[in-house]
Specification:
Layout: H1 2-30, H2 32-57, H3 62-122, H4 126-130, H5 143-174, H6 176-185, H7 192-230, H8 236-246, H9 253-256, H10 259-265, H11 272-297, H12 306-320, H13 322-341, H14 346-352
Length: about 350
């Protein structure tokens, strides 16, 4: 009887874990705006915490230091946003030229596809030609209404992040000692040493990830900007910023970074060689950033194998879209640190870092 009870209990525990995991993932999906805002606030708070600590050492109150650091970062992002918007305004004025070329290219492609379809129909079996093709009844869509509601949802998520993110970062920085102590009090006294080590390692990993990726993004942006200047491509600064940031996206970034210069280059290039040269150069920058810069700057602290990174990007990208691709690696790195410090989960941590 005891053996049967143990088996039933183990099965029920496994089922309960699966159900609990499903509930957690459902919450992460439906409450994505709240969770994403919280995660972005945590990342930014870890990034700014060393600055606040330095200001605190020179006898500046922690709340004042947190406010100063937050205002400094906001000013930097505001200045960069102003530069990007000013260049984007110039691009918007030139858009009719690009749209005309793009429309002509799509028209040519459509004609070639029509010719190809006629050739396929010409070689089709005679009995299939005689058959009457089934009538397809398509439901009338309402794209305007769908796009409107989709845009309202995206705007709501953006406003939620933009409104609450600064306040959350400020409170996390200003009240860090009290929050840290309150967090430690949640655990038994025997486990607090291990919890403290785990939290310190998570802080180091997240801070290294944010700072390292910011430095890598700056290097790739400057490299892309210099390359576009060298080939005399229009709007080089805007294209350099966009391509440099896209190059940070693992795997997909190597292809996504091609699209902005390809679009602008349609009015300047008449041969396939220019497109191939841009694709090869941007791919080289992506490979250099992914295999040299990120391992040298970020990889010392974030130890994840390529399979774990790929699975994380697929899952979180499916869950949250583009922002999921950005948060996938820090989330996975945090999970690895937790697994390394929780008894029974060490094999999972070793697998993630193998």
């Amino acid at each position: 009887m005891q053996i049967e009870d143990i088996k039933v209990t183990s099965k029920s525990n496994f089922s309960q874990r699966i159900i609990a995991l499903g509930i957690v993932f459902a919450f992460l999906y439906w409450a994505s705006s709240i969770v994403i805002t919280l995660l972005l606030a945590v990342l930014l708070a870890y990034f700014l915490d060393p600055v606040v600590n330095v200001l605190e050492k020179i006898h500046i109150p922690r709340a004042v230091g947190a406010l100063f650091a937050l205002l400094a970062v906001s000013s930097i992002f505001g200045g960069m946003g102003y530069l990007v918007v000013s260049r984007a305004d110039q691009f918007a004025q030139d858009w009719p030229r690009y749209s005309t070329v793009l429309h002509n290219g799509m028209t040519v492609l459509d004609r070639k596809l029509a010719v190809f379809e006629k050739q396929v129909e010409a070689i089709a079996p005679q009995e299939e030609k005689g058959r009457s093709s089934p009538v397809r009844i398509t439901e009338t869509q309402r794209p305007v209404r769908d796009l409107l509601f989709r845009g309202v949802g995206s705007l709501y998520a953006f406003l939620l992040v933009a409104t609450f993110l600064p306040f959350m970062v400020f409170f996390m920085l200003a009240a860090k000692p009290r929050i840290w102590q309150a967090t430690m009090d949640l655990f038994p006294a025997d486990d607090r040493t291990r919890v403290q080590e785990a939290l310190e390692q998570v802080s180091l990993v997240l801070r290294s990830y944010v700072a390292g990726n910011a430095l890598v993004a700056l290097i790739l942006m400057l490299g892309s900007w210099g390359f576009f200047l060298a080939i005399h491509l229009e709007n080089p600064f805007l294209l350099g910023c966009v391509s440099g940031l896209l190059n940070l996206v693992p795997y997909l970034g190597a292809v996504l970074a091609w699209l902005p210069p390809f679009l602008i280059g349609m009015t300047q290039w008449n041969s396939i060689g220019a497109y191939l040269g841009v694709a090869a150069t941007l791919s080289g920058l992506h490979i250099f950033g992914l295999n040299v810069l990120i391992p040298a700057i970020v990889g010392r602290r974030v130890h994840l194998n390529a399979l774990a990174v790929t699975l994380a990007l697929l899952f979180w990208g499916w869950m949250w879209g583009a922002i999921g691709l950005i948060l996938a690696i820090p989330i996975t790195a945090t999970v690895k640190v937790v697994c390394d410090h929780v008894e029974g989960l060490e094999p999972a941590g070793r697998w993630l870092g193998a």
